[in-house]
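Exercise 7 asks you to align residues with tokens for two separate proteins.
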Amino acid sequence: MSPELSDEQRNKLSELLRKFSGLFTKTDKSTAAKTNVKHRIFTGDHAPINQRAYRVSPTERRIIHEEVQKMLDEGIVQPSESPWSSPIVLVRKKDGSWRFASIIAS
């Protein structure tokens, strides 16, 4: 914690971190924190947007497959047959690792 925090602020922050500890990952390598929250996206009567995947190198394809498999294994995502889709994009981070992203059509 920041040394600039008062004792009262430190105590409040510690209390919040303990209260919501289940929302945080245990290591940096975990894909995301798991929660029991189910999300639904209301799309009204908008027709589904289905964007094709971008061409990627064999290395990028392997990374995408590994990341999707990791999210499936961790229960973060589940298989879907939805008519909605958007392409996956890999962005290289400063440390050389990859950030897994998606481009959402507007």
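Second protein for Exercise 7:
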Amino acid sequence: MSSVNELTRARPRTLAVASSAPLLVLTNYTVPMVTLPQTASSLGAGPTGPVWMLGGISLGLSALLLVSGGLADDHGRRRVLVWGAAVLAVSVTVTALSTSVPVFVLARVVQGGASAAMLAASLAIVGHAFPSGSERMRATAGYGAMIGLGTALGPLVSGALATAVSWRAVYWLLAACALALAVVSFRELEESRSAEPRRFDVPGVVLLSLGVAALVAGVTEGRAGWGRPVVIMAFAAAAVLVAAFVAVERGRSEPLLDLGLFRRPVFLVATGGALVVGAAVVGLLSYLPTVLQNAHGLTPLQAGLLFCVWSGTSFAMSLLSRFVRLRTAARLALGLGLTAAGFAALLGVGGTLSLPLVIGGLLVSGAGSGLINSSITHLAIESVPVHRVGMGSGANNTARYVGSSLGAAGVAAVVGAYGAERGTTIAVAGCVTLAAVTALAALLTRP
């Protein structure tokens, strides 16, 4: 009985430490959004340099999220989180010291891998500590809120420090925070792992990691021209590797990803919803600070502050989402619907759209995003067996960051083809449609 009471008392501390991981990861992920022009100029970036400076972290994230989830389940969730935070601290330090684009990009790719470990392990820790019921709902709402808060802090802190000191200053701050998280996680968290560990699926890890990396690399490089041989080769390699992964996993008794999970409607809507959220929400909003600076003459700090309207609302709504008395899939549908409505108000943001209307659109879409984050986080661990929460977390986050790469590339391609004003309007309209269709699919989903 005493051990049960001790575990119960430790839950708030566990949630606080584990939720610091997405806060730190998303802060680091969004840092370059408002400082990219200054950073690219400082490092002497060429035409394709900025594309990789933004997309490098997505490459590491997408390639290693699912792998990290399996490792966390089988070899220790705390261990994977601690190592992820430590590697993040080192790689962010390299970014702060970088003097060339290749070093900067390589460090961001490594940060993506470290972030993958942190996200997959931290959500698995929450899923293990809060097995079911209303406590899990509150815990996942709090965890999801950190995604919104981190998204808010990245542009704001980087914009402020870049204006006051240098674009490098924020990376020194993040390195210190990552090191602190590694130490605190090691000292405060209890180790947990699956009661049914599997053998390490080497073929699955290699095929999936390389396949996803090839896809993200093709999408990232495609922004500079979709018909180039390197882009075509990357997409072809991705198709072959992913097909081989599916074939190999079907024949394994202990696969890296249990493909049978896709027969579960809730898992399917959670993973598909994460893919759409990455494409429509992250893809569009990663471009928004640039639009605000170019079309409306805002400084990086002003763009970061305006971006906080969206992310701050998202943070608040994630915390309040547990009071929305709907089943989780319906709450996800409501969030996607609000996101679509808010984005619809942003039509014309690349031209003469007034800032008050922009703020209104960001408020509504931010509220939708808050509901989405808490709902998807809950579905990711609710839709898989309790001993496979790392797998569910990894699959969900992989879909989210592959989607963000696809969305950012799609927005950039449309803007490049049709010009800033018309292209932005078309991109926003596409994101509205995608969010609305997915909202309908989530609404129709039954357990």
